[in-house]
Amino acid sequence: MIKSELISQLVEANPHLYQRDVERIVNTIFEEITDALAAGNRVELRGFGAFSVKHRPSRIGRNPRTGETVDVPEKFVPYFKTGKDLRERLNKK
To answer: Which end of the chain is least crowded, N or C, by CB within 10 Å?
Structure first.
């Protein structure tokens, strides 16, 4: 599902809301999650999961085509851990 499909489904489920308002709400939620992660904070949505940032230290890598060594700089990457309710729903038999 892409963001526009999410917005469309929310508009269909809530006919009393305008599409522009739903778009603003969805964009605000995503911006707040992004801002919190950029500040190094953890975002937890109970029953769904938790977003956090992991630090990857700098290291020496290898170019697979030429075999030469390459310095890979440190970086921060987003990480998502599913919540218990979501995991149970996905693994329902």
So the answer is: C
